[in-house]
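# step 3/5: fold
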Amino acid sequence: MEQTPEGLAAAAATREAAKQKKRQFEDKQGAPPPKRAVRPGAACTHEVAIPEDYDVDAAGLDPSVHGTIHNPKWEGKLAKEYPFVLDPFQQVAVACLERKESVFVAAHTSAGKTVVAEYATALAFKQGQRVVYTSPLKALSNQKFRELSEEFGDVGLMTGDVSINPNANCIVMTTEILRSMIYRGSELLREIAWVIFDEVHYMQDRERGVVWEETIIFMPRDARMVFLSATLPNAFEFAQWVAYIHKAPCHVVYTDYRPTPLRHYAFPAGGNGLYLVVDEQGNFREDNFAKLREAFGADEGGNEGKAAALIGSNGKLGDPPDHRKGAGGRGTGGTRQGGGSGKKQGGGKGGGGGSTGEDLKKIVGLIKQKNLNPVIVFSFSRRECEQYAMQLEQLDFNNDEEKEEVETIYLAALQCLSEGDRVLPAVEHMLPLLLRGIGVHHSGKQAHALSVADGGTEAAAADLVVAGLLPILKEVVEILFQEGLVKCLFSTETFAMGLNMPARTVVFTALRKWDGEEHRWMGSGEYIQMSGRAGRRGKDDRGVAIMMVDDQMDEPTCRAMVQGKANPLLSSFKLSYYTLLNLMRRMEGTGANMEYVIAHSFSQFQHERQLPQMTSRLKALEAEAETITDVTTDAVQEYNSLKERVEELDRQIRQAILQPDRCLHFLRPGRIVRFRDETGLDWGYGVVVSVIRQPPQERGRAVTEAMAPAYNVDVLAVMAGDSLRAGQGQPANPSAEDAEVGVIPVQLPLLTAISTLRISIPPDLRAPDSRRAVLLTLRELPKRYGPRLPELDPLQDLGLEGTPTEQAVTQRQQLQKQLEANTIYQAELTGEGAGVEPLKRKAALLAEAEALRRRMAQSELTSFQEEARNRSVVLRKLGHINEEGVVQLKGRAACEIDTADELLATELMFNGTFNSLDKHKLVALVSTLVPVDKSNEQIKLTAELGGPLKSLQDTARHIAEVSNEYDYLESFRPFLMDVIHAWSKGASFAEICGMTDMFEGSIVRATRRLDELMQQLEHAAAVVGDTTLAGKFAESRETIRRDIMFAASLYVSQSPAKYD
């Protein structure tokens, strides 16, 4: 049952069952505790950003009722009454809303920011206006829809795959939907009085952050905005930007007040007790931390053992436990005909091993004994979430009556599913865990099956993996947690980043995480966000955060994490083809151009705000350089000029030689290479261990190799021993006493030299003696060949003869000879001679000054203008725009597509590929455009699907040639092509799950995204006037919208009467 009256009614029954059971329980136990403490919180900070030339008196507001713009207050009747006294920050925010002025509210989790959003909604309803509530996640949108519907009634929902009551006075939607409405010039925009941006700190998300910037820039001038966010150090800067682009005031209401005090404890690995690290007042308890360190024992030796522990079974330093080659899973590496189950493989430190599991049993047992539940146990590994839950087989949090409630709600939820889907192993094996009050909840992009050794049976463990992934079961877990029937929830950090479901206690199974590039300590902002889930306002006297730590945790690291500040909000503005085309179409006939958008971005605003500081720094650099008179200015200028030109030529040459087709042949194990990190720090020479092809990014964009590298080179690098054992990795000189070697992944563009030298490396780099042997070799090489090891010749070895780069190589050789004759370069190279330090200091000062001048001159506007020109060339060649930059028919079709690669989708639409397919093959081919989880299986397609796939690949190659993106084709893989084809033709969910090694939740998520893409393609076909193709997309889309794939959300359910 999908989003039908029957399905929605079944989902509604689940919510009603939960409420009814809760009422029965409360009747027996007495009235529940108040939801909210009555006492107001601590004072707040208020600031207001006022644009230049703004007349503060023009609004004509009565100061006795509204206060002033710098001291807002509201003495009139509230648009919404509350059964408690508003906190000061809520009172100030309400006063700002009554002034009809935008406001940014920054406060801790559970502080009560939702009150401000509710008041803005109530104010709009009172004044007969419309309000839009945006959120970054569909799950959060669904939850907010349910909450606001219960409060206000006339509420709609638009999330791309669901549209309910779109003409309501209050509409909940994802931010992407609002952006799309702005680009299309929706009539709704003229009626909007307020827009609420929940979790606006998502604006710094690298992939999606630009959506928030574009939406805010193009919001109607008479609409006012409410921004809700976690605490941010630069909230006022953001408000200044909003005031600047909308020419209206924007208030900032900020509070550090935490309604429920929070205590932070640490549990030492292998220990038996908790140590209070930070008390309710935020004081760091040094005495207790010292005792914690003592708990690890006086023996701090065994360094070799610790270093070895950091190197996984594949010899890599800090490899993530469930990334890259150590994964496992159902049918991994097999074909469509294969099955089998993955085996547990060695991982990094803390990979769900016995010691962590035993410690967790002690902690959760203590929490149950002290009645500190509900508890959220955070783990950065999806696999570990499931492992730890399975290991609590002896714990039962629910009594018989609560078990009955769980079963009633669970069975009611299953009414959303067909009878065949109700008996899926993933569904049936979920209930026993929930009956004991234990749940698992994670994003589930890709999980891993557990073996018998991990606890429980292999079948039960494998089924548990998907329990947290199927959307309907995730929502059941959320509802049971909200109703107090799941008392111990194992989750990844995604639960803390979106859903508003606090607990009494949170536990961190680890404080180090893999962020896609490195293993690192949690940032203070991440810790604040996650630990903030502890402590329910009005229910708990205090919240409890428990950190499971080992002897690598030192006091400075702990202080920085627990007492640090949140990260500032930074711009993630970028230009995609979708953005570029929509902006061009929007600005047609307005006289505006791309520069308007770029100039009004938060990125450009932040750059311009730094100009005064950069100017002061430039004057200081020039003044200090003037005081150093022992060095001739000519020598300094020659040195800086030559060095800059050599570095620029080096960049050009590196870009050419690091093309995979030129250099991969040389990057065999044992090759000596030089590399730097992303900050520009030179790591010196290392040894190649292997080269790994990265999984395709969600590109669909002409990105540069440096932005989205396709290859990682695992390099055995020289590091300081202490940093290696801490898992942080800092470069060291090979001759240093504490030097050691460890394997780290290096992005291909970060290589700075490939040597002609290649050494023999031991097959097993985990052994200390093997790593020591490599270190000794690296020490000897400079003695034999000098400080600069011989490098491959770009012309002869790397095949650049006869290419445009040949001239750059020749010019670089000539400039290098001039540079070597410069006195400052000689002094810098040898470190000898009189006046070396003044030479180096003045050269460094003038070089920094010159770099600062360039940075001041080359604004974000300049760089984005160049990017816009390059992308416009691609669009012009593909026929999306004409020579004058006017969007053509193909471009208008591309403007409708933002869930997949718009360039390839429109090419397939216009070259007839889509028209030639029946409805089943059509949806199967479109599935290759949808980004899906990485799969290791080998795809064997039938001839009827192989033909359409070849057409797609040929079209993608053409786009790759035009856009100069050599690995563009790799972004489109047919992992689900035969699965979707079978599903479209009527196969059961169980049958298609047996066709792939992808997990059930991943299949459902990809299919729902496919449904959204098919809807966009239908709109695109209608835009270009191809009604036949539009009808075919609609017919094809209907073949996949059934059963568990599109089960009604338990949050968006309505009674049949309301639905009709």
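# step 4/5: annotate
The mean pLDDT is 79.
# step 5/5: archive (pending)
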